[in-house]
Design goal:
By secondary structure, the chain is α+β, with helices and mostly antiparallel strands. The protein folds into 2 domains: 163 residues, Beta-Lactamase (2-Layer Sandwich), CATH 3.30.450.80; 66 residues, Arc Repressor Mutant, subunit A. 49% of the residues lie in helices and 17% in strands. Strands 2-1-6-5-3-4 form a 6-stranded mixed β-sheet, with helices on both faces. The chain is elongated. The N and C termini lie far apart (55 Å).
Length: 245
């Protein structure tokens, strides 16, 4: 990999990247530019009635390896934040700890990490997480140096990974059947299987079957969970409603 690539070049190239290999290459380049060792780039689209479609590109190193628990923890933190999240052995008396930036103090770790959440309209979420070993006294300086370029790169890399995911989804058939969509939409309004059956011309037993299949496809333990996943975006409500016969 080139070691003298400029930040402007990295930004320009990540904007043009439309393959996994290209995105991974420029995420590596960005980490090298900032002096970080590892990265994890995640993108997910909640407007599709799947549970939910997502894409992960990460460095192979162990610190940011795509382990389920670590990914879930970072994902939950980024879902609830619109600002960077710094994790590490942060001094409680530091400027960083007392700033508006979200921090997660973990005194036992020798690594620091920064997560950059990027929220898009229509139920799209992505984030860039970078990490590296660092001495405690260097965390504040390293964080402050990474925030501005990190925010900019995270937005461009997030756009690229979501574009890649959307392109792949366009080649897949609809996940839920028309009847499953109709029954799920009505269930979201609190309708009973009997009432739903009256609306769509089916028996309550058949409605229950369609709701069960929708729940299984959405990987939810109950109808409420399936509805929650399906209705994360208002666009889903409009789209399903417009498809009703």
């Amino acid at each position: 990999m080139e070691t003298n690539i400029s930040f402007d070049d990295i930004i320009h190239e990540i904007q043009q990247s439309d393959t996994r290999e290209q995105i991974e290459y420029y995420c590596h380049a960005f980490c090298r530019y900032l002096g970080f060792e590892n990265f994890l780039l995640f993108g997910s689209i909640f407007t599709s009635l799947i549970s939910p479609p997502s894409y992960v590109i990460s460095s192979p190193d162990r610190s940011v390896r795509n382990k389920r628990r670590q990914l879930e923890n970072i994902f939950q933190a980024c879902m609830n934040s619109s600002t960077p999240i710094v994790t590490g052995n942060i001094d409680k008396d530091s400027l960083l700890y007392n700033s508006l930036i979200k921090t997660c103090r973990t005194p036992a770790t020798k690594n620091m990490g920064i997560s950059f959440p990027v929220h898009f309209p229509l139920g799209k979420l992505a984030f860039l997480h970078i990490s590296t070993p660092v001495e405690k006294q260097e965390i504040e300086e390293k964080t402050l140096a990474a925030l501005a370029p990190g925010n900019l790169f995270a937005r461009e890399a997030s756009s690229s990974i979501l574009h890649l995911l959307e392109c792949e989804l366009e080649n897949k058939p609809p996940f839920l059947s028309q009847r499953e969509k109709e029954c799920l939409l009505l269930a979201s309004d609190g309708e009973t299987p009997g009432k739903i059956g009256e609306h769509v011309g089916l028996s309550a037993h058949t409605v229950i079957f369609h709701l069960k299949k929708a729940r299984e496809k959405l990987n939810s333990k109950n109808i409420q969970g399936a509805v929650s996943k399906a209705m994360l975006s208002g666009d889903v409500v409009t789209r399903i409603g417009s498809e009703k016969t």
